[in-house]
Amino acid sequence: MTLRETLLEHAPVRLEPLADSHKLGLRAAVEADTEIWTSLFPISMSGEHFDPFWKDMCTKRKTGYAMPFAVLCNQECVGFTSYLRINPDWQSLDIGGTYYNPEVRGGYVNPIAKYLLLHHAFDCGARRVQFRVDALNARSRAAMLKLGAIEEGIIRQEKPVWTGRIQDTIVFSILSNEWPDVKLELERRLSRRPQNS
Question: Across the beta sheet with 92-100, what order do the strands follow?
Answer without folding.
Answer: 8-10, 13-17, 66-73, 76-87, 92-100, 128-134, 166-175, 150-160
